[in-house]
Amino acid sequence: MHHQLDTSVNTPQRIGYIDALRGFTMFLVVLEHVASLCWGIVGKGISIHDYLVQVRMPLFFFISGFVLYKPDVVWNGRHIVGFFKKKIPVQLVSPFIFFALFLHVKGIPLADGVMDMHKAGYWFTLALLEFFVIYAIVRYCVRSRWSAIILVAIGLVLYWFCWPRMTSGNQTVDNVFLLLSVPHWRFFIFLVLGTLVREHFDQVQRWLDGKWLLPVCIAIYLIVNIMGDVLPVKAIPIRLLLSLAGLVVVLAFFRNRQAWFSRDTKLGRTMQYVGRRTLDIYLIHYFLVPTGLSFITVFSDHPMPIIEALASSVIAVAIIAGSLLVSEIIRLSPWLAHWLFGAPKN
Predict the structure, then answer these.
(1) Which of 20, 247, 252, 323 is deepest in the core (most CB within 10 A)?
(2) Which one-letter DSSP state was computed for residue 120?
(3) Residue 131 near residue 71 (C-beta atoms within 8 A)
């Protein structure tokens, strides 16, 4: 069965279900932070989050790459200067303001926060800006189809080597790795794939409508996870395979059920709104996560994945709603909206 798209790949109009998908991904991010900061159960194999982690951040960077690609853009010097003139304030300056304020509230020295690989949670915008730099350099230096091959090759190399435990054996170099959050560069491959899917979206949709791609990806994701005790799930190639399979499944679901996520439904309008405010939510939500709930150990002492997921979801929705409220208050000032969230100047 073929599905009608909201828009053509060659038009600048936003695709509604992609905005909704971005909103869903933001929900997954907040959900994971609730599970890790409230209950402390992530990574212990007793919750759904150990499965969601396989697709959550890959999906976020995939969507970032999807919206980055524009068919009529030439990555020449003029475009690159204009591009980073817009991106640096949004990706670096405003996140640093929230980052510094968060460290102050938590009583963390600025130097410690800066040298933390995760930047107290504020690593995403920095890593995304670095990905834009890598992408722009390759697109500028190679104007042929080879640029896509080179970008994929770079992404695969970074995915293989850039992990939290990476070390060069030299303290100075390792400090640079931490400063630039280099271990997170493993996600660059997903941004590249997002740009390529956007570029070849018509062909990708034909694959999604075919008989084999989606069933194979569902089978891979389920079977590999179910056989986690036998298969090397944490091996780098297996991790990549799981992430790619998960991406296909989630993208296919939102595309095939795009009527649910259109502006004609309350669910669609809500998720699209969240999707258009992901930066605001990302920057604000850390202040609202109730870390004081760590005394509640019931989910770690007595694993109840469904109950925990429901409890975490309720808290996550409340945090997102609170973040959006704070965002709307800040956006009452066009000046603050511009400098903190990159809103266009009036």
Answers:
(1) 20
(2) G
(3) no
Task: State the Cα–Cα distance between residues 284 and 281, nearest whole angstrom.
Answer: 5
Q: What is the DSSP string of 217-262?
A: HHHHHHHHHHTTTTTTTTSHHHHHHHHHHHHHHHHHHHHHTTTTTS
Cβ-based burial of 211 (10 A; exposed 0-12, middle 13-18, buried ≥19):
exposed
Contact in structure between 342 and 89 (CB atoms under 8 Å): yes
pTM above 0.70, yes or no: yes
Q: Are 77 and 97 in contact (CB under 8 A)?
A: no
pLDDT at 130: 97
What is the identity of the amino acid at 33? H
CA–CA gap between residue 173 and residue 313 (Å, rounded): 40
Q: Does residue 47 carry a pLDDT above 80?
A: no
| CA 14 vs CA 6, 7, 209: distances in Å | 8, 7, 22
Token couple for 198: 């956007």
Among 131, 126, 132, 129, residue whose Cα is nearest residue 114: 126
Structure tokens at 32: 């994971």
Residue in 241, 193, 186, 195 with CA at minimum distance from that of residue 219:
241
Q: Do the beta carbons of residue 281 and residue 30 sit within 8 Å?
A: yes
